[in-house]
Amino acid sequence: MDVIDLFKKLIISKSQTPDDGGILDFVENYLNGFTSIRVDVEGVKNLFAYRHFGEGSHLCFAGHVDVVPAGEGWNSNPYAAIEMDGYIYGRGAQDMKSGVSAFVQALKDVNDFKGTLSVLLTSDEEGAAKFGTVEVLKYLKEHDLLPDAVVVAEPTCEAVFGDVIKVGRRGSINGVLEIHGKQGHAAYPEKAINPIHKIAVVLPNIAGAFLDKGDHDFAPSQLVVTDIRSGIETTNVSPGKLKMMFNVRNSTKTDKKSIETFIAHRCEGLDYTLILDQSAQPFVTDANTRIVQILSDCIQEVCRITPKHSTAGGTSDARFIASYGIDVIEFGVINDTIHAPNERTSIVEVQNLYQVFSTLIQRF
Description:
With 364 residues, the chain is an alpha+beta fold. Helices cover 27% and strands 25% of the residues.
């Protein structure tokens, strides 16, 4: 079996969160010579497999085998791994069975390494992510098995394969702002306090506002309004309460406290409550670390392109890995059809990703 055969096998294995589609059992058997540890929690399947070659660094490849529902609008069976015009179509082709197949095959083909190689796979990344990578990391810490560096094979590239390495991720802060008023008859607005009217004055200074200027590693943190609702769906009653939800993908320059201060200043004089929840912390891996430099060199050799460093996009399981002080980066295929109908990845990308990972293992 080569990397493309493996890629197709993973796609036809339906693995909608938290189902692993039997993939982890297959990988456990496929990586002969590796010691396997299963950390299955609350119906979530997790696999950590490692091979100790000798003294040296511990390099880990991490990812998820679960996918989002296929949805509608496909031109072919999303679980058939259809090959057409140099592409392979299927749910998870980009996110992230291409990456998993590339590093699993690279690990299987290793003959020698100065240190320890491992793989961490979960079926709980596209869901709540409460019983996946976080649980495996707890186990690894307790048993002194934490790696020195981790590559997460999420799809990172933008225009051409090899153009982007994710060296970090922004954090994510969710907010719920409630403006309190006084319900009343629409014919007597002077007897009511309409929260819609109240927020209409301040909303232009909140919606889409930049909370910092960003820096070399991060784009500016921006407050993105995601939902506003009020009233009882009738035309003759002024509402008594308004609820607005928002998200901030934050850099290291913005935190919950600074958002509280921002809202307090913009909503001065209003009767409101604010609830903030930090679901992910921002992190960045130094460009001078060994894993960043060696992976960059490997990409240049295979792809003839110098990758830029990015922290854009949403969150990934890399955030959990970074919280243990581990050097973690992300690199994978082009990201342009993830979670969409007709998700696909080119055969050449998967082959080149396998080559990049194989070269990385040789040089690390």
